Amino acid sequence: MDFIANYGLFLAKIVTVVVAIAAIATIVVNVAQRKKHQRGELRLTNLSEQYQEMREEMQAARLDEHQQKLWHKGQKKKHKLEAKQAKARAKRGETVSSDKPTLYVLDFKGSMDAHEVTSLREEITAVLAVIKPEDEVLLRLESPGGVVHGYGLAASQLQRLRENNVRLTVAVDKVAASGGYMMACVADRIVAAPFSIIGSIGVVAQVPNFHRLLKRNDIDVELHTAGQYKRTLTLFGENTEQGREKFREDLNETHLLFKRFVHEMRPALDIDAVATGEHWYGLQAKDKGLVDDVSTSDDLLIGLMKNHEVIGVRFAQHKKIMDRFTGSAANSLDRLLLRWWQRGEKPLL
Questions:
Q1: What NCBIfam families does its record include (predicted)?
Q2: Could you write out the DSSP letters of every residue in 203-239?
Q3: Which is deepest, 89, 107, 302, 324, by most CB within 10 Å?
Q4: pLDDT of residue 288
Q5: 178 assigned to active site
Q6: Catalytic site residue from 35, 36, 91, 230
Q7: What residues make up the domain containing 125?
Q8: Secondary structure class of 48 (helix, strand, coil)
């Protein structure tokens, strides 16, 4: 019995040591992977292959049951042969590239603070690392605009493509207004859906003031600044006409910079006629020169697939659990702000 007890104790120690070593190894691997991918992960999707597979499936669906069986059998044989050939090429160290130029497809669905620019800059950097002279970029854009510095940076990221002589097309299915249009105008070509919202080249700001409410309740607020215009308008103090005038002056200066930027990107545009803060639908926007063609991004992509290998590029950021929670709350607030904008700034159908 003592032998069995000692042997069992020995096995327990061995198991404990093995489990401890495995746990340490797992932690080390996880930490290494986390460090490797802490910025995020670049994901590529062959959109040409996806479309071709969908097309073949639709064609097969129109066949009778016997023909479908033969078709699926032929597809399996075809894929098996392709896999065998790819394996043989890999063993020989050969690489296969398409004869067609590549169209890189990016997506930007902008929020009020334009935080999506973090992913956009990674995607553009990745594309510029492998771009060839005949390749192009298509950006599917959706944004009602937001903060000036956020969308200014997003537009600057797109300018990197322009400065490297990469042809850029922007497709707008829903909305590219204000900061969204600031991004779109960088493109060599803008394509908009017939009823997409385009334009809104203007600047807006509003500040609530609670001074009278506080005064009625005998609450004083002291605001101390160094610099005459460090604070032009305030939430709780008494605003002055001088402060209001300076605030309007800053807005007009920002609007002037916005107009100048759009005019530099699209010199043929009558900037004074369209920089009124108004927005137009895609069909109207084409007449005014704000966009070049009227079409959906789907038709545009299908047309380009005939002569291009189409690759979707997406940078997915890794988020901690707390970041996911706060990000979800921020997105909900952002959607609420977008609804308010939609109700106040454009007609509902």
A1: PRK11778.1
A2: --------HHHHHHTT-------SSTTS-SS-SSS--
A3: 107
A4: 95
A5: yes
A6: 230
A7: 104-200+278-318
A8: helix
- Please report whether residue 114 resides in a domain: yes
What's the confidence (pLDDT) of residue 95?
64
DSSP 8-state assignment for residue 99: S
Q: What is the pLDDT of residue 336?
A: 63
Cβ neighbours of residue 177 closer than 8 Å, sequence gap 6 or more: 143, 144, 145, 197, 198, 199, 200, 279
Cα–Cα distance measured from residue 118 to residue 172, given in angstroms and rounded to the nearest whole number: 21
Would you say residue 134 lies in a domain? yes
Q: Please check whether residue 122 lies inside any domain of the structure.
A: yes
- Structural domains in the chain (count): 1
- Regions of the chain where pLDDT drops below 70: 1-13, 15, 17-20, 22-23, 25-39, 94-98, 319-349
Which pLDDT does position 347 carry in this prediction?
Answer: 40
What pLDDT does residue 343 have? 46
Cβ atoms of 221 and 236 within 8 Å: the answer is yes
CA atoms within 13 A on the CB side of 99: 1
Please identify which of the residues 48, 178, 200, 297 carries the catalytic annotation.
Answer: 178
The CATH number covering residue 137 comes to 3.90.226.10
**Does residue 293 lie within any of the structural domains?**
yes
User: Is 111 among the residues known to form the active site?
Assistant: no
In this prediction the pTM is: 0.77
Q: What is the 3-state secondary structure (H, E, C) of 7-20?
A: HHHHHHHHHHHHHH
